[in-house]
Write a structure and sequence with these properties.
Elements (H helix, E strand, L loop, with lengths): L1 H17 L36 E8 L6 H9 L13 E4 L6 H9 L3 E4 L8 H5 L3 H19 L8 E2 L10 H8 L4 E2 L3 E2 L10 E3 L17 E6 L2 E2 L1 E2 L5 E2 L14 H16 L6 E5 L1 H5 L2 H14 L5 E3 L2 H9 L4 H6 L13 E7 L6 E6 L17
Parallel strand pairs: 1-2, 1-12, 1-13, 2-3, 4-5, 5-8, 6-9
Antiparallel strand pairs: 7-8, 10-11, 14-15
The structure holds 2-acetamido-2-deoxy-beta-D-glucopyranose (NAG).
């Protein structure tokens, strides 16, 4: 099994090295049509009017899932529904180290989306900028299998990627995504295309998106979608990709100020071209700032009661863009269904990390591995 996967990786590398990727050419709307191709643009998919377009809100959290941060997720997310009575979504970009996979299984069974954020989340950031195809096969491609195995969830449910530090390596992560059947990337910030906002698109053709953290892809790579991280604006109009990265903000104890700050950013989308509105944040920022947590909860309480706003898993946004329907038809659709997936937990450890000789403990939904799973040995065999 391991030898087979090594062989597969080698074949993929050979395929990647053997052919230089074609440079993307300017997008031709006539040649690039939904559901599988979309030019990068701020046009609303399907030519809908803004008032007929569902305003999607994507709440996302990054990094490991553990017994501490799950408390916040349970408190602020569980039991929420949108106005169409479908459960509200959120997406977790999970890194492997110190993740408790029993809790990943719990989030999955609650209908939330589990996505990839690398096995190691290693520093320095330059590692990701310079990452080779093989590096990213081991960090992202292999993580899909690892996540499915330890959290006992279907590999087909794992669709999204966010690279650590929002640091892309040009074409490479998208090539890996195409080869490992991953649907979309949510790593690429835009500060230029925020009002009106950039809608998700594919990389068949040249992207019009500004490259904030180079290198960005320039090849034609059919397959994966880009779900742009549309920046917020702070109180001095400086852009920020992650909410916890905004600089000039209301005081962290000012609930009312934060509530208005969130709404102001939301309204740029809601009263504009309704490009998906992202609330991209780390759990520590919410749990260590109770006033911001209350403001965030108030914001969700409001949007969960608006008839044209839907807090969804990020992959659901891509599903809608591929097949855009107006709000009234969207509201009639059935809610997404998650087939329950049982976790029989094993508490494993101490397991030695063969890369650093540290002892690790893991809670997983499978039999315990021999070694601590890591880059190059994702199942810890
Ligand atoms: C991406 O691929 C294009 C086309 O082959 C190439 O010109 C470009 O240099 C590549 N980008 C990086 C960062 O390697």
């Amino acid at each position: 099994m391991k030898r087979l996967s090594v062989l597969c990786s080698l074949l993929l590398v050979a395929a990647a090295l053997g052919t230089e990727l074609p440079l993307a050419t300017p997008c031709d709307e006539e040649a690039c049509k939904l559901p599988d191709c979309r030019c990068s643009s701020t046009n609303i998919p399907g030519g809908l009017r803004a008032r007929d377009t569902p305003q999607f809100v994507t709440v996302t959290f990054d990094d490991g899932i553990n017994v501490i941060n799950i408390e916040t997720y349970r408190e602020v997310l569980y039991g929420r529904s949108n106005s169409n009575r479908c459960p509200a979504g959120a997406t977790f970009y999970v890194s492997h180290e110190y993740t408790n996979y029993q809790l990943v299984n719990e989030l999955y069974n609650r209908g939330f989306e589990i996505a990839l954020h690398s096995i190691s989340h290693r520093t320095p950031q330059a590692f990701w900028a310079d990452a080779t195809y093989q590096n990213l096969v081991q960090e992202i491609g292999d993580q899909k299998r690892q996540m499915a195995h330890f959290a006992s969830i279907p590999a087909s449910a794992i669709k999204g990627v966010r690279i650590p530090f929002l640091q892309m390596s040009g074409n490479t992560s998208f090539q890996v995504m195409a080869d490992f059947d991953l649907l979309y990337d949510c790593t690429w910030p835009t500060t230029a295309l925020t009002n009106p906002g950039l809608w998700p698109y594919t990389l068949h053709h040249e992207s019009i998106q500004d490259c904030i953290i180079p290198p960005c892809p320039t090849a034609s790579i059919p397959g994966p979608w880009v779900l742009p991280m549309i920046s917020w604006r702070d109180l001095n109009n400086f852009p920020c990709s992650m909410v916890d990265g905004c600089f000039f903000t209301p005081d962290r104890t000012d609930e009312e100020g934060w509530f208005k700050f969130i709404l102001t950013n939301f309204e740029r989308h809601y009263l504009g071209n309704r490009a998906p509105f992202g609330f991209f944040v780390h759990e520590w920022f919410i749990s260590s700032n109770p006033a911001i947590k209350r403001a965030f909860v108030r914001f969700m309480d409001i949007i969960n009661n608006l008839n044209d706003v839907f807090m969804v898993n990020s992959a659901e946004v891509i599903d809608w863009v591929k097949n855009p329907v107006p709000i009234d038809r969207y509201r009639q659709q059935q809610c997404k269904f998650t087939m329950p997936s049982i976790c029989r937990p094993s508490f494993c450890g101490p397991l030695t990390g063969t890369h650093n000789q540290l002892s690790y403990y893991m809670t997983i939904c499978n039999t315990c591995p021999r070694n601590y799973p890591w880059v190059g040995n994702p199942l810890g065999q």
